[in-house]
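pinning this so it doesn't scroll away 📌
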Amino acid sequence: MNYDVAIIGAGVTGAFIARELSRYDLKACLLEKEADVAMGTTKANSAIVHAGYDAKHGTLKSKLNVRGNQMMERISRELDVPFKKTGSLVLAFSEHDLATIKDLYENGLKNGVPGLRLLNAEEVIRLEPNVNPNILGALYAPSAGIVCPYELAIGAVENAVDNGVDLKLECEVRDIRCTGDIFELITGKGAIRSNYVVNASGLQADIISSMVQETEFSIRPRKGEYLLMDKTMGNMVNTVIFQPPTRMGKGILVTPTVDGNLLTGPTAEDVDDRDDVSTSPSGMRRIMEEAKKLVPNLGFRDVITSFAGLRAAPDTGDFVIEASRKVKGFINAAGIESPGLTAAPAIGEYVLELLKEQGLALKPKDNFNPIRKSIVHFRDLNDNDRNELIRKNPMYGSIVCRCETVTEGEIVDSIRRPAGAKNLDAVKRRTRAGMGRCQGGFCTPRVVDILSRELGIPPEEVTKKGLGSNILLGKRG
């Protein structure tokens, strides 16, 4: 198959590059080695839309963070993805902390972050009554917010597919050959030819880049562990609560989620294994200790799950988004660590400009549709709307996940959509079935049955997250 542009990696960065390209009259494909989109860093991070005061002035991080923040409200409306502009606080507990937040404030002003304010202790407590009363002050950024990272990526991919991009899952790129002006991508599903290649492969970005050229950057996985708390704790804070940052990141935070839970974490540990998403007792203890410094009354008996994610930390200290100086038509979009989620829509725009400079012809489509409608969430409807929905489709009258009030109709919709769910975790990310207090203890068998029926495969072939993760091994008796 011949393409104008091939994008490697269907995380949130690749998703928005694909969506930007889908505005134009060209043939593009999005390649992902996993069985679903948003399976890497995108599925396990802090879900923060950063204001942009932290990244050093003049860096790509600072420029694209602020631009991405400005775009997020419009993007979330177009993709029908929940976004809340909660604001954020960086708390100061010492004179050193006060100096740090003053530096952040001044850097934020240089970056063009709107509405920044330095608050005294009284003003902070008025805004957030549950924070530690021993604070001396805080930096307040009203433009910060929260979003669901995998919903954002799924929405962008669905919209891109609707507008003509080909999505190829379980399609790992194993080698790239350059023949004249054409790239030949050798994948597990055969060869793909493309005039341009964008490397948005996250933790694998330096490896993919080295297939084409001598790579001038390296990626180090940085693991972050999290604790997710039940919705009973969701109102403990209204804003995103940070500690003053260190060279390893923004530290342990406490934040509400768009779904009403409370999230604490992450730790920050450089690791060698690019697949190491294990959690540890020591990591959990550290999160609890640090989070309680910010919000002393947190009740960790209400933790419903723990998880870990990996950030693609580059040795450059900044995003690596550039056209190759050695091989025409090859673009790296690499080292996209925090604030990569916020920056993703702006990265899409930036990469498009790089491709244009490399010679890609960009003729706008007459029929590009920026609107993507999300799955109907039964739990958010009033009784009249629920009854009308059930009248039209009785599957919406069958509750599958009791914790999150997810119906059979929603699960079927998640499977039948563009870039639809093909496994248990994919359904979970699109509908929240299995994300509640019991973590799938009751609904998993039903979801497996629905996947089996809709995909036309035996239940034994239904997987948790793709190849080698089968839920059932066979029949008993």
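📌 and the second one:
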Amino acid sequence: MAIRERLIEYRDGSTLLEGFFCHDDSRPGPQPALIISHEWSGRGEFVERKARRLAWHGFATFALDMFGKGKRGATTEECSALITPFVQDRALLARRITAALTTVKELPEVDARRVGAMGFCFGGMCVLDLARSGADLRGVVSVHGLLKPTGLPSPGKVRAKVLMLHGYDDPMAPPEDVLAIGKEFTAAGADWQLHAYGNTKHAFTNPQANDPALGLIYDEAADRRSWHSLLQFFDEVLR
């Protein structure tokens, strides 16, 4: 097994973006691929570790960039400023993440017929919006993602299978949001499921999450359980 890594520049219009790509080049032929959407601080070590870990499972992985090459947030205020344009303009969000999907499908290491997407927190909202757009991919997983609807006209049927891994006590995605997104994806004809972890708040997969005031708390059991569910889901839809 030989995991290879490289940075890939790509564009959304005039915005230069930079993704992190890795794959096992000892495996024959184009591989099923996963695009991984980052949390509100930008593409960094958290999602790059996930990309490496999933490459060991036989997926070509691409940790995408929503904000622009080199753009990162270090404080709550900086991170909030980075995501605000996308939260306020969900058409911009859908276009930006679609640029990553297009880039991945054109890579020679990737089987363009077998592509999925996953994301954490803000990134969870991004991949849910990718599914909502009717994009041609096999499945998406939102991990402690934001569940609010886009407010945009519905494009019709959701083609991707959808898995949402959710902390039931997440203050950023309260129970009414869970009920609403279930109705939304049912109406869109989606094959969807939601796993809710009791007594679990936001950012439960991030060992650095420790801000009770914001509801950001790591949970080892929910982290482990959600990882197993994520692997099982992508093995089903991409193998």
